[in-house]
Write a structure and sequence with these properties.
By secondary structure, this protein is of the alpha/beta class. It contains 15 helices and 11 strands. Helix 2 packs across helix 10 and helix 10 packs parallel to helix 11. Bound molecules: ligand V47.
């Protein structure tokens, strides 16, 4: 359980009796179970759901909502995997969409106005192990104070294979040259059924947890994600969250959970993007079920700005950052902006009635914008 503040609970008017059972548990700090998670995902009483999740968020962080001045760097999109939902990746051979950044292009992402760089890319068939280490090393050399959030569990597992090293050795090498935090990508949905259908050549649940477990035991913090809004069921969404909660009980290293809304793009696994109501239910459910992960992130890039702002009253306490040139969602035709100014993020957070707090990748507070 996380530390909590004494906040007066709101008077919630319940229209859905199954949420009253959840509220009783929330008020006494009792852990929610699978059935409670399902009630949150299936309720039509989103007003009550939002108040419950907002109360839990405020009990933990008051009215603070965190954001970061950051940039995403995707050094290559060439990838040996063939995930059905991904519009970002290009095939290793003869794919006109494939790109590889030069060192100048990579280092141009590192400027003095950011506190975090988020690095993730394809599993390149030709790049050697040393290249990935060198990327982190050169960035650290250029920016000694920047927090570096780099490589998903999928990449760390791939590096171990191509570099003929253990997961621990890869993590050690990366930390030695400057890595601070692992991003949460690549988890998708911990369901063998969904994996078979959508990402059967990518690492599964066991390997994903193996990397994060090793990282946490070595003192490296990380994030975690869920890719939702495609063929997964509500049961599978709740299962996924509970598996992450179990891991957090063991190692405690997750900083934030990021629900990633599937961008239909050109892959079109389903006809339409998840609705805003479905987004808010997923954010609120995760805030209520995770009693041990500090933040749930409202990722404006995939949710769109309006829903992302609204999610700040449904349990989310982080809105990611300024980001700049994002490729994973935008190659999948996301209609959110190509980056935001600090002022825009502050405006969004204040419009939700919250207090903007600038942070780095480790959630060290840099400045409270009162
Ligand atoms: O792992 C790929 C997903 C992830 C699509 O840790 C897609 O702070 C939606 O993990 N629609 C990468 N999602 C992004 C990610 C992330 C983003 C922001 C913050 C953090 C963090 C992590 O994007 C991939 C995959 O799950 N993805 N294609 C798509 N069409």
């Amino acid at each position: 359980m996380l530390d909590t503040m004494a906040i007066v609970p709101p008077e919630v008017l319940f229209r859905d009796p199954s949420l009253e059972r959840v509220w009783t548990k929330v008020l006494v700090g009792e852990r929610l179970d699978h059935a409670d998670g399902m009630s949150c995902l299936q309720t039509w009483d989103v007003a009550a759901l939002g108040q419950m999740a907002d109360y839990v968020a405020r009990r933990r962080h008051g009215d603070k909502v965190f954001f970061v001045l950051n940039r995403q760097l995707n050094p290559t999109n060439i990838c040996v995997l063939d995930c059905i939902f991904c519009d970002f990746a290009a095939r290793p051979k003869n794919d006109p969409r494939g790109y590889e950044m030069s060192w100048d292009e990579i280092l141009a992402h590192v400027t003095g106005d950011i506190n975090e760089i988020h690095i993730v890319g394809g599993l390149h068939h030709k790049w050697p192990y040393e290249k990935y280490v060198e990327i982190v090393r050169r960035i650290r050399e250029k920016a000694p104070d920047l927090t570096i959030k780099a490589w998903t569990a999928v990449e760390i597992d791939f590096f171990a294979k191509i570099g003929k090293r253990s997961i621990e050795q890869v993590l050690e090498d990366m930390v030695e040259v400057g890595l601070d935090v692992l991003p949460g990508g690549g988890a998708e949905v911990f369901s063998q059924r969904v994996r078979e259908a959508l990402f059967k050549h990518k690492i599964g649940e066991q390997e994903w947890f193996r990397v994060h477990d090793a990282a946490h035991r070595m003192g490296i913090r990380s994030n975690c994600t869920l890719l939702y809004g495609h063929i997964e069921t509500h049961e599978e969404r709740v299962d996924h969250v509970i598996k992450l909660r179990d891991q957090q009980d063991k190692t405690g290293g997750f900083l934030a959970f990021i629900p990633l809304e599937y961008q239909v793009g050109t892959t079109k696994i389903v006809e339409r993007q998840a609705s805003a109501i479905e987004d808010l239910r997923t954010i609120a459910m995760s805030r209520l079920v995770f009693d041990n992960i500090p933040h749930v992130k409202s990722y404006w890039v995939m949710l769109g700005e309006q829903t992302a702002e609204m999610a700040l009253n449904f349990g989310a306490t982080d809105i990611d950052g300024t980001i700049g040139d994002e490729k994973i969602a935008h190659f999948a035709l996301a209609d959110s902006a190509a980056g935001h100014t600090t002022e825009n993020l502050i405006r969004m957070i204040r419009a939700a009635g919250k207090i903007p707090v600038e942070r780095d990748a480790l959630y060290n507070e840099i400045r409270v914008h009162n």
